[in-house]
Protein backbone atom coordinates (compact mmCIF):
# COMPACT_ATOMS: atom_id res chain seq x y z
CA UNK A 1 0.00 0.00 0.00
CA UNK A 2 2.84 2.34 0.77
CA UNK A 3 4.13 1.97 -2.80
CA UNK A 4 0.69 2.87 -4.22
CA UNK A 5 0.52 5.93 -1.99
CA UNK A 6 3.94 7.06 -3.10
CA UNK A 7 2.91 6.77 -6.74
CA UNK A 8 -0.27 8.83 -6.18
CA UNK A 9 1.72 11.42 -4.32
CA UNK A 10 4.16 11.73 -7.21
CA UNK A 11 1.27 12.34 -9.62
CA UNK A 12 -0.08 15.16 -7.45
CA UNK A 13 3.39 16.63 -7.18
CA UNK A 14 3.80 16.73 -10.98
CA UNK A 15 0.39 18.34 -11.35
CA UNK A 16 1.16 20.95 -8.76
CA UNK A 17 4.44 21.88 -10.37
CA UNK A 18 2.76 22.31 -13.75
CA UNK A 19 0.19 24.75 -12.28
CA UNK A 20 2.48 26.82 -10.10
CA UNK A 21 5.42 27.07 -12.50
CA UNK A 22 8.58 27.63 -10.54
CA UNK A 23 6.92 28.51 -7.29
CA UNK A 24 8.16 25.43 -5.56
CA UNK A 25 11.67 25.92 -6.92
CA UNK A 26 11.99 29.27 -5.07
CA UNK A 27 11.39 27.69 -1.68
CA UNK A 28 14.07 25.34 -0.36
CA UNK A 29 12.14 22.52 1.21
CA UNK A 30 13.81 19.57 2.84
CA UNK A 31 10.70 17.47 3.10
CA UNK A 32 7.64 17.74 0.84
CA UNK A 33 4.29 17.08 2.45
CA UNK A 34 1.57 15.91 0.11
CA UNK A 35 -1.78 14.75 1.50
CA UNK A 36 -0.23 14.33 4.91
CA UNK A 37 2.48 11.96 3.68
CA UNK A 38 6.08 12.94 4.34
CA UNK A 39 8.49 12.31 1.38
CA UNK A 40 11.99 11.98 2.76
CA UNK A 41 15.39 11.37 1.06
CA UNK A 42 15.30 7.68 1.73
CA UNK A 43 15.73 5.89 -1.63
CA UNK A 44 15.25 2.39 -0.29
CA UNK A 45 11.87 1.97 -1.99
CA UNK A 46 13.24 3.27 -5.31
CA UNK A 47 16.18 0.87 -5.05
CA UNK A 48 13.75 -1.96 -4.46
CA UNK A 49 11.80 -0.97 -7.57
CA UNK A 50 14.95 -0.65 -9.71
CA UNK A 51 16.26 -4.00 -8.56
CA UNK A 52 18.89 -3.50 -5.87
CA UNK A 53 21.85 -1.44 -4.80
CA UNK A 54 23.19 0.79 -7.58
CA UNK A 55 26.64 1.20 -6.04
CA UNK A 56 27.14 -2.55 -5.83
CA UNK A 57 26.19 -2.97 -9.53
CA UNK A 58 28.71 -0.33 -10.62
CA UNK A 59 31.45 -2.02 -8.59
CA UNK A 60 30.71 -5.40 -10.20
CA UNK A 61 30.80 -3.89 -13.67
CA UNK A 62 34.19 -2.27 -13.06
CA UNK A 63 35.65 -5.56 -11.83
CA UNK A 64 34.30 -7.32 -14.94
CA UNK A 65 35.98 -4.73 -17.16
CA UNK A 66 39.30 -5.23 -15.41
CA UNK A 67 39.12 -9.02 -15.69
CA UNK A 68 38.36 -8.88 -19.43
CA UNK A 69 34.93 -10.48 -19.21
CA UNK A 70 33.39 -7.30 -20.71
CA UNK A 71 34.89 -5.38 -23.66
CA UNK A 72 34.02 -1.65 -23.64
CA UNK A 73 35.41 -0.92 -27.14
CA UNK A 74 32.92 0.86 -29.39
CA UNK A 75 31.45 -1.36 -32.07
CA UNK A 76 32.88 -4.62 -30.66
CA UNK A 77 30.26 -7.33 -30.27
CA UNK A 78 30.35 -10.35 -28.00
CA UNK A 79 30.86 -12.76 -30.92
CA UNK A 80 33.99 -10.88 -32.00
CA UNK A 81 35.34 -10.90 -28.44
CA UNK A 82 34.86 -14.67 -28.24
CA UNK A 83 36.59 -15.19 -31.58
CA UNK A 84 39.59 -13.08 -30.47
CA UNK A 85 39.88 -15.10 -27.27
CA UNK A 86 39.85 -18.38 -29.24
CA UNK A 87 42.56 -17.12 -31.60
CA UNK A 88 44.70 -16.00 -28.65
CA UNK A 89 44.51 -19.47 -27.09
CA UNK A 90 44.99 -21.36 -30.35
CA UNK A 91 48.23 -23.35 -30.75
CA UNK A 92 49.85 -24.42 -34.01
CA UNK A 93 50.98 -28.04 -33.92
CA UNK A 94 53.49 -29.10 -36.56
CA UNK A 95 53.83 -32.75 -37.46
CA UNK A 96 56.68 -34.55 -39.23
CA UNK A 97 55.40 -37.45 -41.24
CA UNK A 98 57.55 -40.53 -41.51
CA UNK A 99 58.80 -41.34 -45.02
CA UNK A 100 57.85 -44.82 -46.13
CA UNK A 101 60.64 -45.01 -48.72
CA UNK A 102 64.34 -44.25 -48.26
CA UNK A 103 67.25 -44.10 -50.72
CA UNK A 104 69.99 -43.32 -48.22
CA UNK A 105 72.87 -45.82 -48.40
CA UNK A 106 71.25 -47.94 -51.13
CA UNK A 107 72.21 -48.93 -54.65
CA UNK A 108 70.01 -48.45 -57.71
CA UNK A 109 70.45 -50.30 -61.00
CA UNK A 110 68.36 -50.81 -64.11
CA UNK A 111 68.00 -50.84 -67.87
CA UNK A 112 66.63 -47.82 -69.73
CA UNK A 113 65.77 -48.16 -73.44
CA UNK A 114 66.09 -44.76 -75.10
CA UNK A 115 66.43 -42.97 -78.42
CA UNK A 116 67.89 -39.76 -79.87
CA UNK A 117 65.08 -37.26 -80.35
CA UNK A 118 66.75 -34.40 -82.24
CA UNK A 119 68.60 -36.08 -85.13
CA UNK A 120 66.78 -35.15 -88.38
CA UNK A 121 68.63 -37.75 -90.48
CA UNK A 122 68.96 -40.92 -88.38
CA UNK A 123 66.99 -43.14 -86.05
CA UNK A 124 69.24 -44.04 -83.13
CA UNK A 125 67.89 -46.56 -80.63
CA UNK A 126 69.92 -47.04 -77.47
CA UNK A 127 70.04 -49.59 -74.64
CA UNK A 128 71.42 -48.00 -71.48
CA UNK A 129 72.58 -49.84 -68.37
CA UNK A 130 72.81 -47.62 -65.26
CA UNK A 131 73.95 -48.15 -61.71
CA UNK A 132 74.27 -45.68 -58.86
CA UNK A 133 74.73 -45.22 -55.14
CA UNK A 134 72.65 -42.82 -53.04
CA UNK A 135 74.97 -41.01 -50.65
CA UNK A 136 72.02 -39.22 -49.02
CA UNK A 137 68.34 -38.80 -49.77
CA UNK A 138 69.24 -35.90 -52.07
CA UNK A 139 72.68 -36.68 -53.57
CA UNK A 140 73.79 -39.70 -55.58
CA UNK A 141 76.48 -40.74 -58.04
CA UNK A 142 75.72 -42.82 -61.13
CA UNK A 143 77.58 -44.49 -63.98
CA UNK A 144 76.15 -45.45 -67.36
CA UNK A 145 77.09 -47.63 -70.31
CA UNK A 146 74.98 -47.32 -73.47
CA UNK A 147 75.14 -49.07 -76.83
CA UNK A 148 73.37 -48.31 -80.11
CA UNK A 149 73.53 -50.90 -82.91
CA UNK A 150 74.42 -49.91 -86.48
CA UNK A 151 71.53 -50.97 -88.76
CA UNK A 152 72.91 -49.46 -91.99
CA UNK A 153 70.35 -47.83 -94.25
CA UNK A 154 67.58 -48.99 -91.90
CA UNK A 155 68.66 -46.15 -89.65
CA UNK A 156 67.96 -43.56 -92.34
CA UNK A 157 64.94 -41.31 -91.98
CA UNK A 158 62.84 -40.40 -95.06
CA UNK A 159 64.67 -37.06 -95.39
CA UNK A 160 68.03 -38.83 -95.67
CA UNK A 161 66.74 -41.24 -98.30
CA UNK A 162 65.42 -38.36 -100.37
CA UNK A 163 68.65 -36.36 -100.14
CA UNK A 164 70.95 -39.28 -100.98
CA UNK A 165 68.90 -41.26 -103.52
CA UNK A 166 66.97 -38.51 -105.32
CA UNK A 167 68.82 -35.23 -104.80
CA UNK A 168 72.33 -36.74 -104.61
CA UNK A 169 73.17 -34.47 -101.68
CA UNK A 170 75.52 -35.63 -98.94
CA UNK A 171 74.13 -34.78 -95.50
CA UNK A 172 76.47 -34.69 -92.55
CA UNK A 173 75.67 -37.99 -90.85
CA UNK A 174 77.44 -39.74 -87.99
CA UNK A 175 75.98 -42.49 -85.86
CA UNK A 176 76.25 -42.71 -82.11
CA UNK A 177 77.52 -46.24 -81.35
CA UNK A 178 78.54 -46.21 -77.69
CA UNK A 179 78.50 -43.88 -74.69
CA UNK A 180 79.85 -44.10 -71.16
CA UNK A 181 79.22 -41.44 -68.50
CA UNK A 182 79.65 -40.70 -64.81
CA UNK A 183 77.14 -38.24 -63.40
CA UNK A 184 76.28 -36.50 -60.16
CA UNK A 185 72.57 -36.64 -59.28
CA UNK A 186 70.67 -34.05 -57.27
CA UNK A 187 67.07 -34.73 -56.09
CA UNK A 188 65.62 -31.60 -54.45
CA UNK A 189 61.91 -32.41 -54.94
CA UNK A 190 60.19 -35.31 -53.22
CA UNK A 191 56.51 -36.21 -52.91
CA UNK A 192 53.96 -38.95 -52.68
CA UNK A 193 50.51 -39.69 -54.06
CA UNK A 194 47.77 -41.70 -52.36
CA UNK A 195 45.83 -44.04 -54.63
CA UNK A 196 42.76 -46.13 -54.02
CA UNK A 197 43.17 -48.99 -51.62
CA UNK A 198 45.52 -46.97 -49.35
CA UNK A 199 48.43 -47.44 -51.77
CA UNK A 200 51.15 -44.80 -51.60
CA UNK A 201 53.35 -44.00 -54.61
CA UNK A 202 56.51 -41.97 -53.94
CA UNK A 203 58.25 -39.85 -56.54
CA UNK A 204 61.17 -37.49 -56.83
CA UNK A 205 62.41 -35.11 -59.50
CA UNK A 206 66.15 -34.96 -60.06
CA UNK A 207 68.82 -33.24 -62.11
CA UNK A 208 72.06 -34.80 -63.34
CA UNK A 209 75.32 -33.55 -64.79
CA UNK A 210 78.68 -35.14 -65.48
CA UNK A 211 81.26 -36.14 -68.06
CA UNK A 212 81.95 -39.13 -70.30
CA UNK A 213 82.99 -40.36 -73.71
CA UNK A 214 81.09 -41.29 -76.87
CA UNK A 215 82.07 -43.36 -79.88
CA UNK A 216 80.68 -42.37 -83.29
CA UNK A 217 80.81 -43.66 -86.86
CA UNK A 218 80.49 -41.63 -90.08
CA UNK A 219 77.99 -43.03 -92.55
CA UNK A 220 80.24 -42.93 -95.63
CA UNK A 221 77.49 -44.20 -97.92
CA UNK A 222 75.27 -41.26 -96.98
CA UNK A 223 78.30 -38.98 -97.30
CA UNK A 224 79.00 -40.54 -100.71
CA UNK A 225 82.61 -41.00 -99.64
CA UNK A 226 82.99 -44.79 -99.69
CA UNK A 227 86.55 -45.79 -100.57
CA UNK A 228 87.89 -42.29 -99.90
CA UNK A 229 91.10 -42.78 -97.83
CA UNK A 230 90.77 -39.37 -96.19
CA UNK A 231 87.20 -40.05 -95.07
CA UNK A 232 88.21 -43.53 -93.90
CA UNK A 233 90.70 -42.05 -91.44
CA UNK A 234 87.98 -40.41 -89.38
CA UNK A 235 85.25 -42.96 -89.98
CA UNK A 236 85.22 -44.08 -86.33
CA UNK A 237 85.99 -41.54 -83.59
CA UNK A 238 85.95 -41.26 -79.81
CA UNK A 239 85.05 -37.92 -78.21
CA UNK A 240 84.87 -36.53 -74.67
CA UNK A 241 81.36 -35.37 -73.89
CA UNK A 242 79.34 -33.55 -71.30
CA UNK A 243 76.23 -35.14 -69.91
CA UNK A 244 73.48 -33.09 -68.31
CA UNK A 245 69.73 -33.43 -67.92
CA UNK A 246 67.25 -34.81 -65.41
CA UNK A 247 64.17 -36.87 -64.92
CA UNK A 248 61.54 -38.25 -62.57
CA UNK A 249 61.64 -41.41 -60.46
CA UNK A 250 58.35 -43.10 -59.52
CA UNK A 251 58.65 -45.63 -56.69
CA UNK A 252 56.02 -48.36 -56.34
CA UNK A 253 57.45 -50.26 -53.37
CA UNK A 254 60.65 -50.70 -51.39
CA UNK A 255 62.58 -52.22 -54.30
CA UNK A 256 61.07 -51.24 -57.68
CA UNK A 257 60.90 -47.86 -59.43
CA UNK A 258 60.22 -46.50 -62.91
CA UNK A 259 62.36 -43.70 -64.31
CA UNK A 260 61.80 -41.27 -67.17
CA UNK A 261 65.08 -39.59 -68.04
CA UNK A 262 66.41 -37.05 -70.55
CA UNK A 263 70.11 -36.35 -71.19
CA UNK A 264 71.98 -34.06 -73.55
CA UNK A 265 75.32 -35.32 -74.92
CA UNK A 266 77.48 -32.52 -76.31
CA UNK A 267 80.76 -33.23 -78.12
CA UNK A 268 82.88 -32.07 -81.07
CA UNK A 269 83.68 -34.40 -83.95
CA UNK A 270 85.70 -34.24 -87.14
CA UNK A 271 83.79 -34.59 -90.38
CA UNK A 272 85.53 -36.07 -93.40
CA UNK A 273 88.92 -35.39 -91.79
CA UNK A 274 88.58 -31.66 -92.53
CA UNK A 275 85.76 -30.03 -90.58
CA UNK A 276 85.05 -29.73 -86.85
CA UNK A 277 81.40 -29.76 -85.87
CA UNK A 278 79.65 -29.61 -82.52
CA UNK A 279 77.03 -32.31 -81.95
CA UNK A 280 74.24 -32.31 -79.42
CA UNK A 281 72.30 -35.55 -79.10
CA UNK A 282 69.34 -35.39 -76.73
CA UNK A 283 68.61 -38.88 -75.46
CA UNK A 284 65.19 -39.63 -73.95
CA UNK A 285 64.56 -42.91 -72.18
CA UNK A 286 62.38 -44.78 -69.69
CA UNK A 287 62.81 -48.01 -67.81
CA UNK A 288 62.68 -49.99 -64.58
CA UNK A 289 65.28 -49.72 -61.83
CA UNK A 290 65.78 -51.79 -58.68
CA UNK A 291 66.97 -50.77 -55.20
CA UNK A 292 69.07 -52.94 -52.92
CA UNK A 293 69.65 -53.84 -50.16
CA UNK A 294 66.41 -53.41 -48.22
CA UNK A 295 65.69 -50.31 -46.16
CA UNK A 296 67.14 -50.19 -42.65
Keywords:
single chain, 296 residues, alpha+beta, Porin, 8-stranded antiparallel barrel, two-stranded antiparallel sheet, 8 helices, 25% helix
What does it look like?
The protein is of the alpha+beta class. It folds into 2 domains: 88 residues, no CATH class; 186 residues, Porin (Beta Barrel), CATH 2.40.160. 25% of the residues lie in helices and 42% in strands. It contains 8 helices and 10 strands. The radius of gyration is 47 Å and the shape is elongated.
Summarize the structure.
By secondary structure, this protein is an alpha+beta fold.
Sheet of most strands = 8 strands, antiparallel, barrel
Query: What CATH first level of the largest domain would be assigned?
Result: Mainly Beta
The low-pLDDT segments are 14-41
The CATH architecture name of the largest domain reads Beta Barrel
Using the coordinates shown, work out and report the CATH topology of the largest domain: Porin
How are the elements arranged and paired?
Elements: H1 2-20, H2 23-26, E1 32-34, E2 37-39, H3 44-50, H4 54-67, H5 78-89, E3 107-116, E4 125-134, E5 139-147, H6 158-166, E6 174-194, E7 200-218, H7 220-223, H8 229-233, E8 236-251, E9 256-271, E10 275-292
Antiparallel strand pairs: 1-2, 3-4, 3-10, 4-5, 5-6, 6-7, 7-8, 8-9, 9-10
Amino acid sequence: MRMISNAIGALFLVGGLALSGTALADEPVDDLVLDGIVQDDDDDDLDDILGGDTEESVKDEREALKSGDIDDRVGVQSEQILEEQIKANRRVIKTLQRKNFLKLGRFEAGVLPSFVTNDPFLNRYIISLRGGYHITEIFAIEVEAAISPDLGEADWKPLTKQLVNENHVSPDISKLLFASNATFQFSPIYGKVALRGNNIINFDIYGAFGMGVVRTKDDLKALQAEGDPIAEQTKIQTHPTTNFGGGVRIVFNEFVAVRVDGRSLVYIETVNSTTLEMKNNFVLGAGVTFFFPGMQ
